[in-house]
# Entry
Amino acid sequence: MRKTIMLVAVALMTFGATVLTASPASAHGYVSSPPSRQAFCAQGKVPNCGDIIYEPQSVEGPKGQRSCHGGVARFAQLSDESKPWPATSVGASVTFNWVLTARHATSTWEYYIGNTRIALFNDNGRQPGATVSHNVSLAGYSGRQKVLAIWNIADTAMAFYSCVDLQIGGGNPNPTPTPTPTVTPTRTPTPTPTSTAPSGTWRAGTAYAVGAQVTYAGASYRCLQAHTSATGWEPPNVPALWQRL
# Structure
């Protein structure tokens, strides 16, 4: 009986060791922003991604690959150009941010558009932090482009691969609002007048003739151009229409 218990315990220990040995294979790194293809898959924003949705950090293949899946057959969906990969709008440069779940000693980081390497960062074998950022110039490129980002490991023959789809020249997704310019009408606006008044308190929706005088916010104004007033065209706001007296 004791011998049987001993054999079961040894078997369980062996199984546990196998599981622990296998699990670190899923811990490495990928480009998190702008979102790479594996990041979008992990977020559920692209359908039918296969295994990559569970381990976006595991696209590890031999160095020298030029494919989004790094030559790893079970991640081949990443190189499927028929999928609806979202493209992030960027300007003339972009900062790529990597999330590293295992901080391997690093030789270089490379970025490609097509067969052209557009950036190279040399870490000279150093161990990176848990996150790594690189600012890359996109000068000379516009429109939709696919960037292949590569993390070359220093002490193995392997590298990690991430493809990022960009819309270059797409502009700032949160632009600063442009100040509203002073309105200078060159023709009679379209609103239908509700009344005609040569003078009195300024009102919206009223037809004013040249020379009409009104008061607004305690000040007096003379009409310079015939027009029908509208909200937003209060006398202080449109000096082309009203002259303060």
